[in-house]
């Protein structure tokens, strides 16, 4: 999860472009699923809007890359022989050691994020964002229940919600397995909307690799959850999932499951330095605010 990042201006820009492409694909997936099969006029309008959004993003990305390239320094070229000798002198690191190093780095960054979050608790925009979400929850008679920012927060939040409305206890790993299993058995519903880091639609081999990453916790190389995984989880559980966001926005998944009480979680963009985060909710009468535990 925390692999070495390219911190050069070009690397940062490309990473931002990859993130935007993934977010757009999630949005497109929602737009397509919102169309009634019999509404051909609406389908035509949505497809035209999707094409326009994709073309605008592609054009903007090309312009941003064109503007940036003249300011980039000339790359230094190291002689091939010297580079080879340098690599030969470097000790090889075993795969097990790399996994241990990766896990240690993950834990270090998580601890730093938690400390930073505590230090910045009184500052915007995270505090303002949480206050805005709390106001929306108050109207529903709910309040935030904090989930650890460990990369598995989406699945842990849903597991907590499911434990509240059933007599069973669930963990984030249980939800990950259910989401991955549903995606595998409904491959055609997800495969066209998943893209790799270069913006290309993934093939069947990459899709299976992705499902394996959905299945694993982040400490074991798993990926964070987003809209495709929310949709898969809602269908796997046959439960409507509502995601409360700042600005009064509510994303709903599994809207066909209206007979059961929805699972209500919250989405935070600025809660932690690690990035996007999900929390669970509890009734106001219970009013539990649990501080994330350090690992």
TrEMBL record:
It comes from the Eukaryota. It holds the Pfam family OTU. Residues 142-284 form the OTU domain. Residues 57-67, 102-112 have a biased composition (Basic and acidic residues). CDD domains: OTU_OTUD6 (cd22761). Keywords: Hydrolase. InterPro entries: OTU_dom (IPR003323), OTU_OTUD6 (IPR049772), Papain-like_cys_pep_sf (IPR038765), Peptidase_C85-like (IPR050704). The keyword Transcription regulation does not apply. One of its GO terms (molecular function) is cysteine-type deubiquitinase activity. GO terms for biological process: protein deubiquitination. Residues 1-21, 57-130 are annotated as: Disordered. This is OTU domain-containing protein.
